[in-house]
Amino acid sequence: MLEPMTETVAEPAQNETDLRHPLDPEPVRSTKAAAVLALGVAAVVTAPVVGGIIPATVGLALARQARGDLVDGRGYLTGARQLRAGVILVWIALAIAVGALVAASVVGIISLAGDANSGQDFPPTSD
């Protein structure tokens, strides 16, 4: 005959994510990722006057270092979301700065073209 099955379930002591060695360091936020975010905000604010190119360039260089640090941190260094937001802001600032440069160039060329003597390209005739 069939015997009734009895299941014994052992209670797990902890979740697998809670298992940590006592000597493991605590996760820490990356200061480079925070700096990239701050540089991205500064770049967007100053981009219309073309001053945003400098913090944007520094932000991109620092973002590369921060990304490497996050990979090397193996989960003990956090801040990937800040880093991603900062990089997006940096690229937006660069696009705004390039647009401002193009607009200023077009306005300059148009104003130089309007400074011609009376709009004539040929010498006046005597009739």
UniProtKB/TrEMBL annotation:
<feature type="transmembrane region" description="Helical">
    <location>
        <begin position="83"/>
        <end position="113"/>
    </location>
</feature>
<protein>
    <recommendedName>
        <fullName>DUF4190 domain-containing protein</fullName>
    </recommendedName>
</protein>
<feature type="transmembrane region" description="Helical">
    <location>
        <begin position="33"/>
        <end position="62"/>
    </location>
</feature>
<feature type="region of interest" description="Disordered">
    <location>
        <begin position="1"/>
        <end position="23"/>
    </location>
</feature>
<keyword id="KW-1133">Transmembrane helix</keyword>
<keyword id="KW-0472">Membrane</keyword>
<keyword id="KW-0812">Transmembrane</keyword>
